[in-house]
Amino acid sequence: MPSLGLKLPQVSALRRRRGVSGPVVPDLPIWRAARAAVTAGERNARILCIGDSTTAGHGAYAAGMGDNNKAGAWPTQLAALINARGGTASWSSIIGNNNASDTRLYDNQVTFPSGQGWNFSTAAGVAGSTLGGYHTTASVHSPPSKYNFAPINACDTFEVYNPKAGGNARAWILSVNDGADLATVSNMQTPSPPGAFEKYTLTTAMGANVLNIRAQNTETTYLAGIIAYNSAVREISVLNAGWSGAKASDLNNGSGYAYGPVNAISVYDPDLVIINIGINDANQASPTATATFISHVQAVIAAAKAAGTDVVLMAPTPIGSSYAANLNTLSAAILALGATNSLPVIDLRARFIDYATANGAGWMRDTLHPNVSGYAQIATAVADLIYN
What whole-number distance in Å separates Cα of residue 112 and Cα of residue 233? Predict the structure, then answer.
């Protein structure tokens, strides 16, 4: 009996041995194997949700990227639905900064002192984009303050993801619950680019733990992501890599960097990638050319497949601006990408119909973004496909 925790090469080999032919992705074999592995207690599974502000959760409880809106985003609600349907899931993670101007307001799991060297990079390269938007940086403040991550679930394990670049002495120092220093994680790598993108796993006693991170010195140091979990309980970790304001080109930017969005997919080791992009490409007088949009999304699909994960596409929620027709054009392109790549597509227009209908149902925050009720509709559409 093969291991239930199969990834793409093992699935392909197993199918060949059994004489099975035909497309495998519409059946989501990798994801189904991951679900079975969780049930059997073999390992955790991961869903990586890649997209724009409508994945990040913009407008869930109030306008913008504040008001703890991440807690109402559809990936968060997807985790809750999996739990309600008999599974075990968590959203105790940070992937990028989701392009929130102040992560503390957008995600109440995060705290750090104001004005003590913490910033969010928006430049290209190591100081810039990764999955979920941009790196969080610490610099110039001495002594460095602590960045604190208090996951919603009790845990004993933290995975810290950081880019390595530059030859100066720079590192994170990790502790838990403001206790003794437990680990030093180097950020040094020469040459840069391309640098490297790595994870460090910190284990501690089980409990309502808070991870503390501070920079070793005043050299600029970069943080890309954190995932927390209870190692004694197998779970489905739902990772929100939404990037407020992102276009398809942003997701396909920085391929020369190990921590660029497309390259970072494999480091997070997902079993399922869900791609929800297009609104920002469409909502302008000169929308992204369809062929260009297809090329960028195809690059993300290819990177996900190369990482050994199943992929699901979304045709975005309808918008109420004068550029709605542009989005319909790109949504048709997403459906075509699904057919070309033999991927399932969740066409959210089937549920939301159009902006006027969705707004009348009380699902929209504004002309571009759903509210928490609208995000619940997206989460349900996803759960109905992947977790019946």
Answer: 29
The Cα 215–Cα 147 span in angstroms is 9
Name the fold adopted by 8-386. Answer: Rossmann fold (3.40.50)
Residue extents of the structural domains in the chain: 8-386
What is the token pair recorded at 373? 């009720």
Mean pLDDT of 179-193: 85
Tokens of 243: 């990037």
Whether residue 273 is predicted with pLDDT greater than 90 in this model: the reply is yes
b/e map 348-382, b = 16+ CB within 10 Å = bbebbeebeebbeeebbbeebbbbbebbbbbbebb
387 touches 87 (CB < 8 A):
yes
* pLDDT on residue 255: 86
How far apart, in whole angstroms, are the C-alpha atoms of residue 322 and residue 326?
9
CA distances from 23 to 15, 265, 339, 348 (A): 11, 23, 11, 24
Q: How far is CA 299 from CA 28, 196, 248, in A?
A: 20, 20, 10
| Alpha carbons 11 and 194: distance in angstroms, whole number | 31
Q: How far is CA 82 from CA 26, 153, 363, 379, in A?
A: 20, 15, 21, 10
Residue identified by tokens 């810290």 is: 160
Sign of CA dihedral 329, 334, 335, 336: positive
Entry pTM: 0.92
204 Cβ neighbours under 8 A, 6+ residues apart: 156, 157, 158, 176, 182
Rounded (to 5) percent helix, strand, coil in the chain? 30, 25, 45
Six-digit token pair at 322? 């004068």
Q: HSE of 206 in the Cβ direction (CA atoms, 13 Å)?
A: 5
